[in-house]
Write a structure and sequence with these properties.
The structure holds 2 protein chains of 2 kinds. Chain A is mainly α. Helix content of chain A is about 80%, strand content about 0%. In chain A, strand 1 and strand 2 form a beta hairpin. The two termini of chain A are about 20 Å apart. Chain B is mostly helical. Chain B has a single domain, classed as MetI-like fold, CATH 1.10.3720.10. The chains are: A mainly alpha, B mainly alpha. At the A-B interface, helix 2, helix 7, helix 8, helix 9 and helix 11 of A face helix 1, helix 5, helix 6, helix 10 and helix 11 of B. Chain B: Keywords: Cell membrane, Membrane, Transmembrane, Transmembrane helix, Transport.
Chain lengths: ~325, ~300
């Protein structure tokens, strides 16, 4: 029953499309790495690579597998990735998979906290704006929304951090990063500002979507009927209006995940949080291409999965999509 | 960025009439503010690109370092005695140049691909759709970052990296309206009179999506400015000593308590630039989006 319904809804096609996209993502990441001047040999040996004899060079090329045609290089790399071998980081002296497993939960926590902040700020402000369109409170809500869209996360982050540290002595991020399970209190203190700043950027589009959706739902006949029936205003707002406005809000929240992952690179850097975004940046700064390649792939994978989930969630919330 | 894609799907295709456009830009207060900010900063860009600045943005003058804003140094000086005003103006010039080149590239390539995909359908649609999906699978800033790390960095390669990120938006935003336009009677009539499909596409379809493109260009410019600033903040933008708003803010983060102007000047200007473009883009969108008409 359930399965039949799913097949009918094009869910299978949607999943197939996501898999195809992921393959394309792998190709792009692979090509990007090959486009970098130099190879594993020059990146490991630096200028000494020039002193290699042709024989030595050929031996090293065979060792790294870069004497093979690009096509087979791609598939052996893909095979490695699929079996969990993401490469080795020579600086950290550990596997990239290990590093990624350490970093992923950190970014995941940051993402969850930011989304929570964003939903609270965005939905409250959006409903406030929509409660009296074109009034002063609407204008105030819209200004906050515009600020969220226009203030770069790195600017807000650096300003807040330096002002709070110098004026109030609040600088939890000056201490070494505490993992959530080791020192929950310090961890939450360290995550508070980063999540607030990231959430502020995500709140703006959520606020705008909420405002538009609530205004649209409010003009519906069923809301008038409910009001006429004597449904108390607060109950009307939440049970009747917000519930029906939820579909675009959920979609928008899912779509913002990409912004969040990009923003995480900046925020993790500013607040010294050892997440997945900082890992990419460190890899780039230290010319550790295996690290960059695999981490970018993991992030894109996460992004594709979240988009797929949003899409499927959307079908569950809104019966009209299922029928389409 | 996904925000606009989503909302633009609702914009009906319309041609742009210059006089109506001017009326739009001047009748709404916030749109007008956006226009004024954008034009002012565009002038600053031109002046900076031609070197018409009060001081040399690169010249160091140690005895004059960390001076507060004054008649001589309007926004003060930084830790090397360089004039912050001139550096901010040059940074605006740099940002705007990169954003404009990036968005111009994204507009041309993205619109062309969107037109072809929507008008010719078939294989080209599938292929273009596939590539678009792949590029959309990367978080925008991350893709720009990865691309910027691959190239030898200069202002042009940064612009290309940003362009690649924003091209798929233009594909998605134009393809939808083109799909419906190809079924409209006058387009079918034009095809049936024997005009080449390319001519029909350029003469009858393209003019009808200009409003969508203009809105998208304005909003994309603001994201491109933000992306460029973020890249240079992370040290992956135009390499120093070329002044850039992002790297100025990065350098100022340790000076903010002693010399707040070193942070405030580039910070306020980057926000102004993005706010101006956003207000302009929102105003244009409201004009061309039938759902919002009468709402304001």
């Amino acid at each position: 029953m359930m399965l039949e319904e799913f097949l009918h809804n094009g869910v299978v096609r949607r999943v197939g499309q996501a898999l195809f996209t992921l393959l394309g993502v792998a190709v792009v990441v692979f090509v990007m790495l090959r486009a970098i001047p130099g190879d594993q040999i020059t990146s490991n040996l630096g200028t000494e690579a020039a002193a290699l004899t042709p024989d030595q060079r050929a031996a090293l090329e065979a060792y790294y597998g870069i004497d093979q045609p690009l096509f087979s290089q791609f598939f052996s790399w893909l095979g490695n990735v699929l079996t969990g071998n993401l490469g080795f980081s020579s600086r950290a002296q550990t596997s990239v998979a290990e590093l990624t497993l350490q970093a992923l939960p950190v970014t995941f926590e940051l993402a969850v906290l930011s989304i929570a902040f964003a939903l609270v700020m965005g939905i409250l402000l959006g409903m406030l704006s929509a409660s009296r369109p074109n009034s002063a409170r609407d204008a105030a809500g819209q200004v906050v929304g515009l600020a969220g869209l226009s203030i770069p996360a790195f600017l807000l982050a650096t300003t807040l951090m330096s002002v709070l540290a110098s004026e109030f002595g609040f600088n939890p991020n000056g201490e070494p990063y505490a993992r959530l399970l080791q020192d929950p209190l310090l961890n939450l203190k360290q995550m508070f500002l980063p999540a607030l700043v990231l959430g502020f950027g995500v709140a703006a589009p959520i606020m705008r979507t909420t405002r538009t959706a609530v205004l649209e739902v409010k003009s519906g006949d069923f809301v008038r009927t409910a009001r006429a029936k004597g449904v108390p205003p607060r109950r009307l707002q939440i049970r009747h209006v917000l519930r029906n406005a939820l579909v675009p809000i959920v979609t928008m929240t899912g779509l913002q995940f990409g912004y969040l992952l990009g923003g995480a690179v900046v925020i993790e850097q500013v607040f010294s949080i050892p997440g997945i975004g900082r890992q990419v940046l460190l890899g780039i700064q230290q010319n550790e291409y295996a690290l960059v390649q695999s981490t970018v792939l993991v992030i894109a994978l996460a992004f594709v999965l979240v988009n797929l989930l949003t899409d499927l969630l959307y079908r569950i919330i809104d019966p009209r999509v299922r029928a389409a | 960025m996904t925000l606009a894609t989503d909302q633009n799907a609702e914009i009906t295709a319309r041609t742009v009439r210059p006089r109506a456009l001017i009326r739009t830009l001047t009748s709404n207060r916030s749109t007008f503010v956006g226009l004024v900010i954008t034009v002012t900063l565009a002038i600053v860009t031109v002046l900076a690109l031609f070197g018409a600045l009060p001081h040399d943005p690169l010249a160091q003058d140690p005895p004059e370092r960390l001076r507060a804003p004054s008649g001589d140094f309007w926004f003060g000086t930084d830790q090397f005695g360089r004039d912050v005003f001139s550096r901010v103006a040059a940074g605006v010039g740099n940002s705007v140049l990169i954003a404009v080149v990036a968005v111009a590239f994204a507009t041309l390539v993205g619109t062309a691909a969107g037109l072809v995909a929507g008008f010719y359908r078939g294989f080209s649609d599938t292929a273009i759709g596939g590539v678009t999906n792949i590029l959309f699978a990367f978080p925008p800033l991350l893709l720009a970052l990865a691309l910027a790390s691959v190239f030898d960095r200069n202002w042009f390669t940064i612009a290309v990296a940003i362009a690649v990120v924003y091209t798929p938006i233009f594909v998605r935003v134009t393809r939808g309206p083109v799909l419906s336009l190809r079924e409209v009677e006058y387009v079918r009539a034009a095809v049936s009179t024997g005009q080449s499909r390319l001519m029909v596409m350029l003469k009858h379809v393209l003019p009808n999506i200009t409003s969508i493109i203009i809105v998208q260009v304005t909003l994309s410019l603001s994201w491109a400015v933000l992306t460029e600033a973020s890249l240079s903040f992370l040290g992956l933008g135009t390499p120093p000593p070329a002044p850039s708003l992002g790297s100025m803010i990065y350098e100022a983060r340790t000076l903010v308590t002693v010399a707040p102007w070193t942070m405030l000047a580039p910070g306020i200007v980057v926000v102004l630039l993005v706010v101006g473009l956003n207000l302009l883009g929102d105003g244009l969108r409201d004009t061309y989006d039938p759902r919002n008409r009468g709402n304001r």
